[in-house]
Task: structure prediction
Amino acid sequence: MALISPSRRLRRTPFSDGVEAAGVKAYTVYNRMLLPTVFESLEGDYHHLKNHVQVWDVSVERQVELRGPDAARLMQMLTPRDLRGMLPGRCFYVPIVDETGGMLNDPVAVKLAEDRWWISIADSDLLLWVKGIANGYRLDVLVDEPDVSPLAVQGPKADELMARVFGETVRDVKFFRFGLFEFEGRELVIARSGYSKQGGFEIYVEGSDIGMPLWNALFKAGEDLNVRAGCPNNIERIEGGLLSYGNDMTDDNTPHECGLGRFCDTQTAIGCIGRDALLRVAKEGPVQQVRAIAIQGDAVAPADRAWPIFGNGRRVGHVTSAAWSPDFQTNVSIGMVRMTHWDTGTELEVETSDGMRKATVQPGFWA
Ligand code: THG
Result:
């Protein structure tokens, strides 16, 4: 692949200077912003993430802020997950659907107060959809993108590093909840969450000016913990079954096809724009669904397009993400598979960029 040409359209982040100084080797583009993908190597980063602690510039997880009396009403219009029981201080993983029940995004909703929410978005222009709804329904709510850039601290030593910078009480933050912690006189939202299965936190850095001071403080405090700059790791996230919007799902998929049925309460999510459509598809059940799939043979190339899946010689789906797993000693992948072939243990063939490979449906996260 050729290099990415820098320009103003391709936004830098408050931490880009630190990311560059740390020797970033590759970027992807996400929400029109730079997202690092490799520092040492995909496998080197993977082992380090599982054993130590990393600081990730995930500024690309842009926030859509809802502020005003109709904020909660608007939030419920966007998702089939019932938000009535959600208290301030909580984070919810929420499918966002359009009027056909198609997935528009799979963000984390952060409830700051009854009338103030952040939607921490995956890679699609959700701001435009939300602004359109707020204005079309004449809701009393302000919708914009604040100067908030998440910085993730992930890995088994994340608690130790965070306690050194923010104090011991940060250890008490529970999964998918947040607290307010001070840094240089500013209150920051810190949640126990992040796009890995290794545990850790996400700091919602409010104010670009404190980005590099915080970055530097974390690296200084973690010298003896072998802290490194890292990024969402494609091997680790496929092993862990974390979906990637635009890769593993698009607006052609319902949440049920994405295995996100457990985050839908379509019966009681009154006001959700896709509710009628989802009530219909939920009754029938999906005819295809995401699956973890082991692909035999040596390391495959990254899946930069959908790889057709065949069962008994017929097309039965496609692989959407794949990587060689050093720990599992096989290629791990995520694919969308028709119901006739989605049972655990089903033998398949995948037409990878490196030719046809045998593959097997794994027990997993969504079955
Ligand atoms: N954190 C924040 N914003 C984000 C992401 C994040 N925006 C983009 C992207 N990631 C959104 N997608 C996901 C996908 C999975 C999870 C979070 C965001 C996730 N899932 C857990 C799981 O599936 O095991 C837990 C879900 C739950 O139990 O609620 O963490 O990572 N701020």
Remarks:
- Residues 61, 93, 106-108, 120-122, 150, 176, 193-195, 202, 242-243 surround (6S)-5,6,7,8-tetrahydrofolate (CB under 6 Å).
- The first strand starts at residue 26 and ends at 30.
